């Protein structure tokens, strides 16, 4: 019995109907200019030894598909003594390549990339959604620029700094003082309630 427009097979050969329409929409989201920018950043981070992809979506996919360049990219954002991926070497075995891509995705999430910005392994390995791959790399670059820890290489203007929370703005002493004030407020509210206030702050009516 012939297969009828199975979306999972869209990358394997001709597809028709809804699956082809979806594939076309995904392809249109791919940004050629962004491809050039991301290529320059990856080469800046990893060195000229990673080479450069052939121009276009398929070339970019083939360049990153085995996961080795992605692994070197995430490792370049960490100290050499504690790499995010222990064995980022290139391999010809398909399952090892997919495993390496999965390790990159987990490392990117640990680095700070939101889950919603993380592509699926098949998006890259089977070319299902290269726009999603671009989105993940952009999110990674944005965080790398924001960290300002000395590991980012390239032009900072390629990415946007993310808003950071000022978690270290208060000293331990100030935090303790804040807790004391809150405690006093809670105590006074409790006393007021016992003195005739209801839970809604209104005095009880004495009949």
Automatic annotation (TrEMBL):
CC annotations in GO: actin cytoskeleton
Domain of life: Eukaryota
Regions of compositional bias (Polar residues) in chain numbering: 187-196
InterPro entries associated with the record: Calponin-like, Calponin_repeat, CH_dom, CH_dom_sf, SM22_calponin
One MF term in the entry's GO annotations: actin filament binding
Gene3D superfamilies in the cross-refs: Calponin-like domain
Calponin-homology (CH) domain location: 32-144
Short name of any one Pfam family annotated for the protein: CH
Protein name: Transgelin
Gene that this sequence comes from: TAGLN
């Amino acid at each position: 019995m012939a297969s009828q427009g199975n979306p999972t097979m869209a990358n394997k050969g001709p597809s028709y109907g809804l699956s082809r329409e979806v594939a076309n929409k995904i392809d249109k989201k791919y940004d050629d200019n962004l491809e050039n920018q991301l290529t320059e950043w990856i080469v800046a981070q990893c060195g000229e030894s990673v080479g450069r992809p052939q121009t276009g979506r398929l070339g970019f996919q083939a360049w990153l598909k085995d996961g080795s360049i992605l692994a070197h990219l995430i490792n370049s954002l960490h100290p050499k003594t504690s790499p995010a991926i222990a064995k980022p070497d290139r391999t010809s075995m398909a399952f090892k390549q997919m495993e390496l891509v999965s390790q990159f995705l987990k490392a990117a999430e640990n680095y700070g990339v939101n889950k919603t910005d993380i592509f699926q392994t098949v998006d890259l390995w089977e070319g299902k959604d290269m726009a999603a791959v671009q989105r993940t790399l952009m999110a990674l670059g944005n965080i790398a620029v924001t960290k300002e820890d000395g590991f980012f290489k390239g032009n900072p203007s390629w990415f946007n700094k993310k808003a950071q929370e000022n978690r270290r703005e208060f000293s331990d002493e100030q935090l303790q003082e804040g807790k004391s004030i809150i405690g006093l407020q809670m105590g006074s509210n409790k006393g007021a309630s016992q003195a005739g206030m209801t839970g809604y702050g209104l005095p009880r009516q004495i009949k």
